[in-house]
Amino acid sequence: MHTISQGRFFSKLRNFEIYDNQNEFIGRVGDLLLRKEDLSVYALISFDDIVRERLESLHIIDNRDEIIPLHHINREYRHTNQIQTTIPPQKIMNNTY
Q: Phi and psi for 14 in degrees, rounded to 5?
């Protein structure tokens, strides 16, 4: 039998802040990327503040939402409202991880 205590609701996870491996703020969890095969979570997608997201949706500025694969998440932070990656900032900005 499965219970709610075995996981987290996406609605709660959505507001978690994401930081790189040097504690620099990247964004907030805005969406999840699921695997096609089994619909398991592959990655978190970071969103910026609401104004930037709106400008991106209107194509006024470039969309720069980072995709953070779960294997790059520092598991020690899972009981807080913050998520820290194991990725250095320069690799996040260039999507080279």
A: -55, -30
CATH (domain of 17)? 2.30.30.240
Q: How far apart are CA 53 and CA 38, in angstroms?
A: 29
The number of distinct structural domains making up the chain is 1
**What are the tens digits of pLDDT across the range 29-86?**
988 999 999 988 899 988 877 787 788 888 898 877 788 899 998 876 656 788 888 8
Burial class (CB in 10 A: 0-12, 13-18, 19+), 90: exposed
Query: Distance between CA atoms of 88 and 57, rounded to whole angstroms?
Result: 27
- Asked if residue 1 is part of any domain, the answer here is no
| Report field, pTM of the whole predicted structure over 0.85 | no
- At 83, is the secondary structure helix, strand, or coil? strand
Domain that holds residue 34: 9-94
- Position 53 in a domain: yes
**Distance between CA atoms of 52 and 13, rounded to whole angstroms?**
20
